[in-house]
Structure formats: C-alpha cells, structure tokens
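Lab notebook, entry 388. We have the chain sequence and a SMILES string for 6-O-phosphono-beta-D-fructofuranose, and the next step in the workflow is to get a structural model of the bound complex before anyone spends time on docking refinements. Request logged below.

Task: model protein plus 6-O-phosphono-beta-D-fructofuranose, output structure tokens.
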Amino acid sequence: MRLVVQEDAESVGEWVAHYVQERIRRFKPTAERPFVLGLPTGSSPLPTYRKLVELHKSGQLSFEHVVTVNMDEYVGLSPTHEQSYHAFMWTNLFEHIDIRPENVHILDGMAEDLQAECDKYEAMIEDLGGIELFLGGIGPDGHIAFNEPGSSLCSRTRVKTLAYDTIVANSRFFGGDIAKVPTMALTVGVGTVMDAREVLVIITGVSKALALHKCIEEGVSHMWTVSCLQQHPRACIACDEDATLECKVKTIRYFKGLQDTQLKLLQLPMEGYGGTSLTRGSSTGSAAAAPAPLSSTARMAVQEARKDRLSASSVMAAMSRAAERLSDDRSVSSVDGANAFRELATVAARGKPAAAAAAASAGASSGRAPKRGADDASRSAAKRARDV
Ligand SMILES: O=P(O)(O)OC[C@H]1O[C@](O)(CO)[C@@H](O)[C@@H]1O
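Result returned:
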C-alpha cells in the first residue's frame, strides 16, 4: 500500500485529481473501452472534484469516455433531495464536466426492492468489466463506502444500517439534526471495492486520524473496514498532515521516504535508453549558463512548473507527470536528470514553486549531459533554488 502525505486537504485534492487525470490519459479510453471510475461523496473528495472540474474546463481532461460508479446512496432520499448522493454528484462534479448522463451510475435508494437494486448494481459493474480505479472516502469509524464496523470483508453491494457515529458525523449536512439523517444506505461491499483494479482512498482531517492509524499501523479488521486495503495489490491512501496525527512519526517518515524513492524510481527506466529528443545542457552543466533547448515534454513540464500560481504539490505532480512522460518516450538516456527532479521535489515540498521551476529547468536541460556536468547542474540548480 502507498501512503501519499500532502500538507492539507486542498493539496490532497490537487494530487488526487492529477493522479486521476494521468490514469485516464494513460488508459486512452474510447467509447468501446471506457475508463471505469468509482467515486465517493462526502466532504473529503470535494477538493478533488473542484480540481477535476478545473482540469476539464481548461481543456486538459475529458470524461467523454469515462463511466462512473458511485459508492453509495441513502435509503429513502429521492435523487432530487439536496442531500442525496445523486444531487451531490451532479452539483459538485457531473454538471460541470463532459460526462454522458448514461455513463453515470448511482444506486437508487428509493428502489422498491432494495436488494434487487444492489444485485443489479453488482451485475452492472461486472458487465462494465470491473472498476479500473475506485476513489474512496471513509468515515471517522474507518468505514469505507458505508461498510460500517463489523461488515464482512467479503461483502457485496447491499443495504446497510448506519452506525450511530456515522449518523452523528453526517448530521452536519442535515442542519445538525440527527433525526433527519437517513438510518440506512445502499453501499458497495468491501469485496466490491477490493475487486477494483486499483483503489485510492482520500483521508483528510484530524477526525479521521484514528482510522488512518488503525488502517496502516494495525492489522486487517472488520472493525475498521478501510484496513482491507492492506490486502489489495494496488492500493493508495492520499492523506493530509492532520490525518496522520495518531500515527507514529516513524511510520509517517517511512512512507514519506518511500514517496521520495518512488519519485526516483519513476526515472529509472530512463537509464540506458539513447535518444535525441532531450537536448543536452552545457558539458560544464552550470545551471546559470544559458538554458539549452529542451524536448517538448520537458519544456511543457517546466512551463507548467513556472506558473507561479501553482502550489508546491502541483509542481510536484507536474514533474512526476513529466518524469512518467519521459520514461514513456524512452528518449532520455541519463539518470542524472533524476537527481535534478529529486532536488525539484525537495524544493517544491518546501513550497517554493518558482525555485522548483529553476531546478526543473536545469534538471531537464542536463538530461543528457555527461554525468559530471549533470551533477554540477543539479547541485547549482538546487543551490539556486535554495537561494530564491
Ligand atoms: O468525507 P466525509 O464528509 O467525512 O464523508 C465521508 C463519507 O462519505 C462516504 O465516502 C460515502 O461515499 C462514506 O464512506 C463516508 O461516510
């Protein structure tokens, strides 16, 4: 399992949205082979949805060939009820993007035969060929979707009675009146989530800190159903600093260290591939020297990074995308560029996007420089970045 820690909920949203964008881009969906995306509701995914809308509006992301499958819905709320998850999804995401209404799937909490509705939902997911990426949210009691404590870890879509804790937590959406919160919901099961080819769960805020601790530092348990992720071959949690408050410093450092290594690993396929598209920097590799021409991939990344209004996490996401594009292109022959990317990530993490862009520029232009020169470039870029 991966744990990606970002500063705050907003940065988590940016990271997740960029991740989703990249997964869709790489999947190259078509009408015949759409990208099937599982989605949650609640306040946790709101920053992600805002960013996805932004990416769509700026022409960087299309949902034309995306099919969505929502996690859950309250029993007894009509789709037009403002607190229904139907209304939530249309208001916060679907009506702002180019998704086809027939590609949206949300359980019907008003269905006459609720279990038949759930069975139909499972069959629909199977017909779609399964879920490619399931984004998830959790409750403070560690439930994933609405799989409350004690749910079977093999459960499928079904009717669930909501735990009192969940009713209290969600009463904030019903004017603080717990009597107005539905007591039952339809929800995909833990088994349904686990069948997705990839699961990415958003955990933000101090109210979820105990659940995160249970999920990553203790064993798999039906009392904290999100802990099922430990047994998923491709699971990731994107959390903010507040959500880590109940975890050991050592655990969080460990995962942050992995984050760093993963960024490096993204560069590794670059080694050993000859290529021409990334033009070398000067052999002395000085970052202060006139920048060498860059390949279009690297140039794009640097331009993205240079927009000062981008937050540190966007810069990191941009560079990580650039790294992936570079390794896809197989046109860059040096791991020395990776050093500069690493420096970039470090600087970006300190919240200096402009400085990070300088490092990126030097790193990209040193991509095919001889080792010594590239190292020099990395070092001077990093120094320059620190001085900004
Ligand atoms: O993000 P919030 O507002 O805490 O809400 C989380 C809720 O949303 C859900 O993700 C429902 O989709 C539940 O798992 C959880 O109860």
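Notes for the group: The longest helix spans residues 9-27. Worth checking against the assay data. The chain has 13 helices and ten strands.
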